[in-house]
Specification:
- One of its GO terms (biological process) is respiratory gaseous exchange by respiratory system.
- Its main location: Golgi.
- The chain folds into two domains: about 5-35; about 60-340, no CATH class.
- Helices cover about 45% and strands about 10% of the residues.
- It has helices at about 5-10, 60-65, 70-90, 90-95, 125-135, 150-155, 165-175, 185-200, 205-220, 225-230, 235-245, 245-250, 260-265, 280-290, 310-315, 320-340; strands at about 20-25, 25-30, 110, 115-120, 180-185, 275.
- The strands form two sheets. Strands 3-4-5-6 form a four-stranded mixed sheet, with helices on both faces.
- A hairpin with a 2-residue loop joins strand 1 (about 20-25) and strand 2.
- The radius of gyration is 21 Å and the shape is globular.
- It starts with a helix and ends in a 12-residue tail after the last helix.
- The model is unreliable at about 1-25 and about 30-50 (pLDDT under 50).
């Protein structure tokens, strides 16, 4: 049964709870449920191109007090419930850290004009979503997301992230702005990251930073050239590096293969919408509709011919031992459970 079907079949109650966590002078209010019983009307932005003008209601009002209840709204409620239930069921592992610091919020991109926060996850259409956010926040500077070069979309100064705000400003935005993220089948995302960062010759910075380290630790009798360049890392070596306890003790994973749980902190921050790579266009345009710009701005729809597929992922895992498959699944288990992805049929778990 497909994940989308499972989502529609699953109906749980809404968790209404507010947590306040603090350490020293840092206080971060985490909302697991946004109450919109008393909506506040906010100012309309000015000086913006027509493509980015929002409506009279903000996105949270449109989401939680819709003029008409749709199957899409019900689907997203089910996804929110799945995250809440997973966080509760895995409270020991999901709540190792009770407090978030500003550094934990560097992936949360803020759109002040439309009162939205987007947590970007690499290898889940984040380049195109950053382009869209640049259109939304550019006040007329941009109109077509695809006219923005990919490298420009990743320039940090082009978008403002939540860690750049003061603590009271952070709390206000977490409470009042619509927060969303996009997820992908964890192992498909992992293979996509490997293919992009370790099989493309132009990614020399990754080869030097990570490839040389992986070869040194995981390859017996490595040549001097391989140790120097790190540009021929095998997928089996990449997996062995990820499950090596030394790797996880040494430093956090790179964002391209870090878990969504660790990048976006969904057990600490309540996300109002959880989009999926498998339904990218529909979910993206639903968000733009809630933002009041759906008539003027559409999510880019072009398909990449080099996209990592489920069939491709299956092939990459054929040479991974069942022991390593089991260990790798444990690393990404919360992402599988939280976002309702079933255990892949090709896995041979011990």
């Amino acid at each position: 049964m497909k994940p989308a079907v499972l989502e529609v079949m699953r109906m749980n109650r809404v968790c209404r709870m507010v947590l306040v966590t603090s350490v020293g002078s840092f206080i971060l209010v985490i909302f697991y449920f946004q109450s919109m019983l008393h909506p506040v009307m906010r100012r309309n932005p000015f000086g913006m191109d027509i493509c980015c003008r929002k409506g009279s209601r903000n996105p949270l009002q449109e989401l939680y007090n819709p003029t008409q209840l749709s199957n899409t709204a019900i689907l997203h409620q089910i996804r929110r419930d799945q995250v809440t239930d997973t966080c509760r069921a895995n409270s020991v592992s999901s709540r190792k850290r009770r407090v978030l610091t500003p550094n934990d919020l560097k992936h949360l991109v803020v759109d002040e004009d439309h009162e939205m926060i987007y947590c970007y996850v690499p290898k889940v259409a984040c380049t195109n979503w950053k382009r869209v956010m640049m259109v939304l926040t550019g006040r007329g500077k941009y109109s077509d997301p695809m006219e923005i070069p990919a490298n420009e979309a990743h320039v940090s100064s082009n978008l403002k992230t939540l860690n750049q705000y003061s603590i009271p400003e952070i709390n206000h935005r977490l409470k009042n702005y619509m927060k969303f993220l996009f997820v992908r089948e964890p192992f498909e995302r992992l293979v996509s990251a490997y293919r992009n960062k370790f099989t493309q010759k132009y990614n020399t910075s990754f080869h030097k930073r990570y490839g040389t380290k992986i070869v040194r630790r995981q390859r017996k009798n490595a040549t001097q050239e391989a140790l120097r360049k790190g540009d021929d890392v095998k997928f089996e070596e990449f997996v062995a590096y990820l499950i090596d306890p030394h790797t996880q003790r040494e430093e956090p994973f790179n964002e391209h293969w870090q878990t969504v749980y660790s990048l976006c902190h969904p057990c600490h921050i309540h996300y109002d919408l959880i989009g999926k790579y498998e339904t990218l266009e529909e979910d993206s345009n639903y968000i733009l509709q809630l933002a009041g710009v759906g008539n003027y701005l559409k999510f880019p729809t072009y398909a990449k011919s080099t996209r990592t597929t489920d069939e491709m992922t299956t092939e990459f895992f054929q040479n991974i031992s069942s022991e390593h498959q089991t260990q790798l699944y444990e690393v990404y288990k919360l992402d599988f459970l939280m976002f309702n992805y079933s255990v892949p049929s090709y896995l041979k778990l011990e």
